[in-house]
């Protein structure tokens, strides 16, 4: 137990945790959106994120990005990366809905069946990027698929350096960008769901599909929309991940997806602001726990906290309410 | 194309159910013959396709996993199939009968394996500590039979400990919490080096004849046949046990809770109690399976218990036909056997496996051999969906 270390550098650990949790939160949005409308756990969402990281990797290596480009170029690469990752992830999410979920929805299958097809598809995606694509494209894109199933590094777009310090808390430029970008994306999504015409459709379907259909909301379109939105958020998370950690792997999605889903449940699944809170909370708790015990215990701490929170708040910190959010 | 597959599928289901009906209608002595034939077949399986003179029967021989280059020992694969069937039967109690989605079943499997390792092996820190504490000789360890009891008791307790706080949660929350539980067990096994030896693992795990050594006449490291016979015996015992349980008051209560918790509660069935019961029962079976796994392997380490395996377990139950014991057993055997037999496609086997899971679920959401009640339910749901086009 390292209480002194935790208390002494509380600010530093909080900042580290927040920037880690911001990425969890972005991925968690995908789970929450789909759950809020369809009441189903989109288990394959972690692979949507993985595809996003590969899209960023391919873009950057194809553009011939060198380490530490000048600021103007760096911004260009990041913006391009966001667009490409969002398109790739959004497209993957949409394909997922078409292939795995729509036929089952027609049959009104119970949620467990959805879960199993999602697991199957998740496996397919992992193998696609670990086996099939390396076979097909190994020579064309050696940077991305030259070493199948291995961790592949990416060029460093922004060199990590300390921007400013408050007390003994140092805040780096990457942490700041990750946090601000993630919160901005989430604010945008929150505005979209709560303030626009399309968002009203989403909330209507989440509240009551039949009535929404009677009021002229096209349910199929709403479902496609939430999958795409979740995909875009995962794409943004993929870009931030690539910028901050600079590597990817075909099996990267599993653990991150698990954490993001935990975050969504912690905050109250189906609740957008809950996903943000849950993600940040989980990130901070993990960093605190890792400091207090040892870093190899952080996953245990994350899940124990989840169990404890659910014991006292069975529907998460903020409760589940995409539909019930102020209509 | 899809319609063609569907109509062929419907015919096949018709045949399957009529097989079931005919079986039930048979006189008792004919059933007895059938059961004996099945038993002979199961215990004969390690010799599948082989004649006494060293001859091979071509068709049957090709089913064996050692008939291909680099294929695994056939009896060893059968043993894995058998312990997976045990897992599927246990998980079926939780998922199929009680309707609780448990994604952390590997946790119980691991606890079962670790209980024989920690108490039965002379290399485990726990045994060493007991030796020191009570001045026992350095060869002392808990015997296999007592380890078996320990494994079952410990997994049941852990099932209750996990279930107590979490079973009040709704289904989807339960899924993530159990997934977390499985990971917690694995990470604890990895990190608590003082108790479990951590990533180094524990060796010299005993079998029925004591610790693995060259003197063991029956349960050795090389010949897997006795292990398979041991495992299949446990499987048959557990099948009978769970069957009896399924048709008892407890089994009916599980179905009632699965169908509608509130209605069950109104009828005087206390859902929490029966859910906990299902959890403990399922956990014990998973523990038994893990126990056999650890004792056959003679060596375990935490990497053998990762979360993917949990998901594979759930897939076995759902693909096979959740709620039906024959169905889930078939699911378990298929998922354990096919990747071994088709090693030629080894690189692509998980891809094919994933695709097959998606296809089976889209074409046959009720699983390969569904339970009748479950199949009817799904039909009702599909009919409901057609009646109310507003859903689509």
TrEMBL record, chain A:
The record's principal subcellular location, in a coarse class, is membrane
Question: Per the database entry, which stretches of residues form a coiled coil?
Answer: none
Pfam families under this entry?
Answer: BPD_transp_2
List the subcellular locations. Answer: Cell membrane
Q: Which UniProt keywords apply?
A: Amino-acid transport, Cell inner membrane, Cell membrane, Membrane, Transmembrane, Transmembrane helix, Transport
So where does this one cross the membrane? 22-41, 48-65, 71-96, 108-129, 174-193, 222-241, 247-267, 274-294, 300-319
Q: What is the protein's membrane topology class?
A: Multi-pass membrane protein
Family of the protein in this entry: Belongs to the binding-protein-dependent transport system permease family. LivHM subfamily.
Recorded protein name is Branched-chain amino acid ABC transporter permease
Which organism does this record belong to? Micromonospora trifolii
Cite the source lineage: Bacteria, Bacillati, Actinomycetota, Actinomycetes, Micromonosporales
TrEMBL record, chain B:
Q: Which CDD domains match?
A: TM_PBP1_LivM_like (cd06581)
What residue ranges are annotated as transmembrane? 32-49, 74-96, 103-122, 142-164, 227-245, 276-299, 311-338, 350-369
Q: Is Metal-binding tagged as a keyword? A: no
InterPro entries cross-referenced by the UniProt entry: ABC_transp_permease (IPR001851), LivM-like (IPR043428)
Name the principal localization, coarsely classed: membrane
**Cellular localisation:** Cell membrane
Give the record's membrane topology. Answer: Multi-pass membrane protein
List UniProt keywords, sorted A-Z.
Cell membrane, Membrane, Transmembrane, Transmembrane helix
PANTHER family, sorted: HIGH-AFFINITY BRANCHED-CHAIN AMINO ACID TRANSPORT PROTEIN BRAE, HIGH-AFFINITY BRANCHED-CHAIN AMINO ACID TRANSPORT SYSTEM PERMEASE
Tell me what this protein is called: Branched-chain amino acid ABC transporter permease
**Species of the source:** Micromonospora trifolii
């Amino acid at each position: 137990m390292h209480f002194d270390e935790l208390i002494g550098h509380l600010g530093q650990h909080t900042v580290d945790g927040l920037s880690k949790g911001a990425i969890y939160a972005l991925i968690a949005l995908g789970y929450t959106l789909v759950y809020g409308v369809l009441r189903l756990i989109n288990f394959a969402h972690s692979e949507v994120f993985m595809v996003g990281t590969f899209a960023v990797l391919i873009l950057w290596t194809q553009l011939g990005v060198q380490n530490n480009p000048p600021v103007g170029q760096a911004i260009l690469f990041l913006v391009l990366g966001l667009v490409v990752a969002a398109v790739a992830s959004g497209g993957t999410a949409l394909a997922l809905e078409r292939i795995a979920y729509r036929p089952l929805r027609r049959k009104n299958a119970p949620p467990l069946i959805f879960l199993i097809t999602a697991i199957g598809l998740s496996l397919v995606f992992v193998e696609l990027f670990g086996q099939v694509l390396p076979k097909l494209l190994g020579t064309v894109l050696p940077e991305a698929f030259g070493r199948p199933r291995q961790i592949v590094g990416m060029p460093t777009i922004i060199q990590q350096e300390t921007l400013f310090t408050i007390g003994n808390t140092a805040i780096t430029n990457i942490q700041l960008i990750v946090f601000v970008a993630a919160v901005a994306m989430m604010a945008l999504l929150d505005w979209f769901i709560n303030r626009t015409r399309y968002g009203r459709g989403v909330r209507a379907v989440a509240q009551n599909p039949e009535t929404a259909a009677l009021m002229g909301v096209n349910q199929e379109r709403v479902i496609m929309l939430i999958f795409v939105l979740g995909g875009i958020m995962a794409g943004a998370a993929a870009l931030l991940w690539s910028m901050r950690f600079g590597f990817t792997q075909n099996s990267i999605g599993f653990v991150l997806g698990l954490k993001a889903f935990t975050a969504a449940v912690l905050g109250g699944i189906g609740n957008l602001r809950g996903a943000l809170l849950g993600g940040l909370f989980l990130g901070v708790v993990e960093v605190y726990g890792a400091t207090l015990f040892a870093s190899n215990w952080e996953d245990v701490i994350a899940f124990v906290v989840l169990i404890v929170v659910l014991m006292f708040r069975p529907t998460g910190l903020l409760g589940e309410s995409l539909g019930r959010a102020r209509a | 194309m899809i319609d063609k597959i569907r109509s062929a599928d419907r015919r096949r289901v018709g045949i399957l159910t009529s097989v079931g009906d005919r079986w039930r209608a048979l006189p008792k002595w004919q059933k007895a013959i059938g059961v004996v034939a099945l038993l002979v077949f199961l215990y004969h399986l390690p010799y599948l396709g082989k004649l006494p003179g060293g001859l091979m029967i071509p068709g049957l021989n090709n089913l064996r996993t050692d008939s291909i280059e680099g294929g695994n020992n056939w009896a060893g694969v059968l043993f894995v199939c058998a312990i997976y069937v045990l897992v599927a039967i246990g998980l079926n109690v939780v998922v199929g009968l009680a309707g609780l989605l448990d994604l952390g079943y590997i946790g119980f499997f691991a606890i079962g394996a670790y209980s024989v390792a920690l108490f039965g092996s002379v290399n485990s820190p726990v045994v060493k500590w007991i030796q020191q504490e009570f001045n026992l000789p350095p060869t002392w360890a808990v015997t296999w039979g007592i380890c078996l009891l320990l494994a079952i008791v410990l997994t049941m307790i852990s099932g209750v400990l996990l279930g107590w706080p979490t079973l009040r949660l709704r289904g989807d929350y339960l899924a993530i919490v159990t997934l977390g539980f499985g990971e917690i067990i694995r990470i604890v096994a990895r990190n608590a080096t003082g108790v479990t030896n951590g990533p180094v693992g524990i060796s010299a795990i005993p079998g029925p004849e004591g610790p693995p050594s060259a003197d063991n006449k029956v349960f050795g490291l090389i010949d897997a046949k006795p292990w398979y016979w041991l495992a299949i015996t446990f499987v048959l015992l557990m099948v009978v046990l769970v069957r009896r349980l399924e048709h008892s008051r407890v089994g009916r209560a599980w179905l009632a809770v699965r169908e509608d918790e509130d209605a069950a509660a109104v009828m005087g069935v206390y859902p929490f109690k029966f859910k906990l019961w299902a959890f403990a029962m399922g956990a014990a079976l998973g523990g038994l399976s893990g126990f056999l796994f650890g004792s056959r392997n003679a060596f375990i380490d935490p990497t053998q218990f990762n979360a993917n395996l949990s998901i594979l377990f759930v897939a076995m139950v759902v693909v096979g036909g959740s709620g039906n014991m024959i169905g889930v057993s078939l699911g378990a055997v298929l998922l354990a056997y096919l990747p071994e037999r088709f090693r030629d496609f080894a690189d692509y086997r998980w891809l094919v496996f994933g695709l097959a899971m998606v296809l089976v679920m889209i074409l046959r959401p009720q699983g390969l051999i569904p339970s009748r009640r479950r199949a009817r339910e799904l039909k009702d749901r599909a009919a409901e969906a057609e009646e109310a086009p507003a859903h689509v």
